[in-house]
Write a structure and sequence with these properties.
Blueprint: H1 4-16, E1 23-24, E2 39-40, E3 53-57, E4 68-76, E5 81-89, E6 95-100, E7 107-111, E8 120-127, E9 132-140, E10 148-159, E11 174-175, E12 180-181, E13 188-192, E14 200-204, E15 210-215, E16 217-222, E17 227-233, E18 241-248, E19 251-252, E20 256-258, H2 261-272, E21 309-310, E22 319-320, E23 334-335, H3 336-352, H4 371-385, E24 398-399, E25 401-404, E26 421-423, E27 426-427, H5 428-444, H6 450-469, H7 492-506, H8 509-517, H9 537-546, H10 554-573, H11 592-610, H12 613-626, H13 680-686, H14 709-723
Parallel strand pairs: 12-20
Antiparallel strand pairs: 1-10, 2-4, 3-10, 4-9, 5-8, 5-10, 6-7, 6-9, 11-13, 13-17, 14-15, 14-18, 16-17, 18-19, 18-20, 21-22, 23-25, 24-27, 25-26
Helix pairs in contact: 2-14, 3-4, 3-5, 3-14, 4-5, 5-6, 5-7, 6-7, 7-8, 7-9, 9-10, 10-11, 10-12, 11-12, 11-14
Bound molecules: ligand 9MR.
Ligand 9MR is lined by residues 328-329, 331, 333, 484-486, 590-591, 702, 706, 708.
Length: 726
């Protein structure tokens, strides 16, 4: 280990802004001294006879790391910047990594150099997040059906290099919703400029003819981006068309439409996202061209499978069949609390009936049940399987999650995951999530499958009772090996939500009284973000306000939602980009795009409750941020806009790492700006970022650029609302 004084010296250098001498970590990187200390695996031998290192990669391996060439025992110092470079040739995809040479083989940096048959040079700069003397550099070259030759030369890992300055390409300074505006909706844009007084703007149609003009409103410096900004309002223009552009201060926006069709498509695609997240079933190419894959985690090797999953050692002595469900995100984990909020939000979109629900082209299509209910049932059935059956300790409680025993690398298709799957302990939060959504399902599915509805309701009642008997089984934040923790230390919100759903479905006095006496019922729950997987009170509050019932004091419940909406409206009106989200100290949270959308759901709900147009306008304007009116001038929804997120962190939509794999399907929402930069890629590229700029469309940036079932549910809810507006 480098000594503490070495770390202190590095910190001092950084503080002084001085660069140390650049220090080479790799020994014999040019292979002039033979092969030592390089290693190779997968049955290969390194041949240096041509002055470079070549190996014959055998065919028939599965994972990139099954065949590799590398060097161990390298030093890394946290906070220092390194340049990893080499020349290489070959005609198959490879992965270049700097990581830990011993278990758990953490990856500190990874790239997918696009090789050709002649040697080309590759160079990457990254910041080390840890200090270790057990780092390795490696080129992982396995995973091909046929044999091929890989050659490597001039490998270098240079420490003490200057940090790479990443400058995002933000295009024209006029920022618009790139998919377009509704003819009868708000039409607002943001101009980034040094000017401090109003400037003229012009709206041009596709033929270039000016169809509207006006003056900008200076807004001062926008806290969320650090930019001096003006806003533009052209809501008065209502003529449908495609290819409009907005110009001001010598800049012209990306093109956009004035139309109603885009939101209907977005509604459909955001919901179609769930089929390709399914576990336990083959994804069919005829239903999702380009996305076909074998069923994941169905007990076919190398999967250990979800058919009979044991608990973590010492947690329980039974196994459960927990096949099915949706993969949570870019990993292969399945987590009840995140499944719960996702199911609730998609079913809420269905229950609110703002717009008709689209056909989704899924295997169950045509069975007489709406597709959206078919799709959600895939997850509900899984959630029900996570409940401890009668006869076992903690019967009626629900396991918090099931995932791999250790984290896996990227890319990795679900059916190729070799890790042992494990059930984690039951939790009060997971149990109440099941109670809430199974109760909701009981009323939603009643019409199509009464027996299923009865079964779901029984499971919900059992879960609620079990949670009452075990109110403090809290999922800890330490449980994050091989999957996310989804730790939740507060469960009174989950109790309230579950009781609310049970009451709305059954009208039982027992649940009604629970709701009415819960302190959460009258709490101001609409904070920086209205709700998320860990804060579920608003799910109950919104349903109590919006769904019919005789709940005493329902008028006050409705009023509380409208008061919440007023807060988000005020935040939005003060925001030069029209965002109804202003986190304390401008620290944007993990998955901020979903927070923007969830706050917009509260605004849309206030419109439903009051009919006041200002809330409709506000909800729609929030969509502009997601779809391009932002500091990065990009849409966060794959395939929706001129420039869109498309490299979201995922083990199977890993096109950025393996050209043979697809990008995420259109309609996939990226997490968005996250000030905490919890992944090494974000740390190296975005250090010092301001708010909105804390995002990068790179597959390695799991803390800013993942895709998840609970973020797409927020998108689907709002797209459903917007699809109904004209
Ligand atoms: O979305 C989750 C975010 O709110 C948490 O802060 C973060 C860290 O616990 O985890 C996020 O959820 C991830 C989960 O743990 C594992 N699957 C991918 C999820 C999205 O990044």
């Amino acid at each position: 280990m480098p000594s503490l004084p070495a770390q202190a010296a590095a910190a001092e250098r950084a503080a002084a802004g001085k660069q140390a001498a650049e220090v080479e970590q790799v020994v014999n990187g040019g292979f002039s001294a033979g092969t030592a200390p390089w290693w190779s695996n997968g049955g290969t031998t390194i041949d240096v006879s041509s002055g470079q290192a070549c190996i014959t990669v055998p065919g028939g391996t599965v994972n990139r790391w099954d065949v590799a060439i590398g060097q161990n025992d390298l030093d890394l110092v946290a906070g220092e910047n390194y340049r990893f470079s080499f020349t290489a040739s070959g005609d198959h995809p490879v992965r270049a990594i700097v990581g830990l040479s011993t278990a758990p083989y953490d990856t500190y940096f990874a790239a997918a150099p696009a090789l050709t048959s002649t040697a080309s040079a590759f160079s990457y700069t990254f910041q080390a997040g840890v200090t270790t003397s057990s780092a390795q550099v490696a080129l992982q070259v396995g995973g091909s059906a046929e044999p091929w030759t890989f050659c490597l030369d001039d490998v270098s890992l240079l420490g003490g290099v200057p940090p790479e300055v990443y400058v995002p390409d933000t295009g024209p300074r006029v920022r618009v919703n790139q998919i377009g505006y509704l003819p009868g909706g708000p039409k607002r844009a943001t101009l980034v400029t040094t000017a401090t007084t109003a400037l003229p703007w012009r709206l041009a149609n596709a033929a270039g003819r000016i169809v509207a003009r006006g003056r900008t409103t200076p807004r001062g410096v926008d806290v969320s981006s650090g930019q001096n900004a003006h806003s533009i309002d052209f809501s008065g223009y209502r003529i449908r068309g495609t290819g409009y552009t907005l110009s001001a201060d010598g800049e012209t926006s990306r093109p956009f439409d004035v139309d109603t069709t885009a939101y209907r498509q977005l509604q459909r695609d955001s919901l179609k996202f769930y089929y390709t997240q399914r576990s336990g079933i083959e994804i069919r190419d005829d239903l999702r061209p380009g996305y076909a894959r074998p069923a994941g985690h169905v007990d076919v090797a190398p999967n250990k499978g979800d058919g009979a999953v044991p608990c973590q050692p010492g947690v329980c002595d039974y196994t459960l069949d927990v096949t099915g469900g949706w993969y949570d995100a870019g990993d292969h984990g399945k987590y009840v609390v995140n499944g719960g909020i996702s199911v609730w939000q998609v079913l809420s979109a269905y229950e609110q009936r703002h717009a008709p629900m689209p056909a989704l082209a899924i295997p169950e299509s045509g069975n007489g049940t709406p597709d959206v209910l078919n799709e959600v049932r895939w997850e509900l059935d899984f959630l029900l399987k996570m409940q401890v059956p009668a006869g076992h300790p903690d019967a009626g409680m629900v396991h918090h999650k099931i995932h791999d025993a250790a984290w896996t690398g990227l890319p990795l298709l679900p059916h190729l995951d070799p890790q042992q799957r494990e059930l984690h302990p039951v939790s009060t939060a997971a149990t109440l999530n099941l109670a809430a959504v199974a109760a909701q399902a009981a009323r939603v599915y009643r019409r199509y499958d009464p027996a299923y509805a009865r079964m779901a309701l029984a499971a919900a009642r059992t879960a609620f009772t079990a949670a009452q008997a075990n109110p403090d089984r809290l999922a800890p934040d330490s449980d994050s090996t091989g999957g996310g923790a989804y730790n939740d230390a507060r469960v009174d919100d989950d109790f309230y939500w579950a009781a609310a759903e049970l009451y709305l479905t059954t009208r039982d006095k027992h649940y009604r009284d629970y709701v009415l006496t819960s302190p959460v019922h009258t709490e101001d729950i609409f904070g920086t973000g209205a709700f998320d997987w860990g804060n579920t009170a608003a799910a109950g509050r919104l349903d109590l306000a919006l769904l019919p019932s005789n709940l005493p004091g329902r008028a006050q419940v409705k009023a509380s939602v409208v008061r919440g909406a007023e807060k988000y409206l005020a935040i939005q009106q003060a925001h030069p980009y029209g965002v109804p989200y202003a986190p304390a100290n401008n620290l944007w949270d993990w998955g901020s795009n979903s927070t923007v959308l969830n706050n917009a759901q509260v605004l849309a709900s206030a419109y439903e409750l009051t009919g006041h147009a200002k809330y409709r306008t506000a909800a729609l304007e929030a969509m502009d941020y997601i779809l391009g009116r932002n500091a990065l001038n990009q849409s966060y929804v794959t395939g929706y806009g001129e420039v869109t997120s498309h490299n979201q962190h995922s083990r199977w939509y890993a096109h950025q790492l393996d050209p043979a794999l697809p990008n995420p399907p259109k309609g996939s929402l990226a997490g968005g700006a996250n000030s905490s930069l919890q992944d090494p890629l974000a740390q190296s590229k975005l250090a010092g970022c301001v708010g909105q700029f804390c995002y990068i469309d790179d597959i390695q940036s799991w803390s800013t650029n993942e895709l998840t079932i609970n973020w797409n549910s927020a998108l689907a809810w709002m797209a459903t609302f917007a699809a109904a507006q004209r």
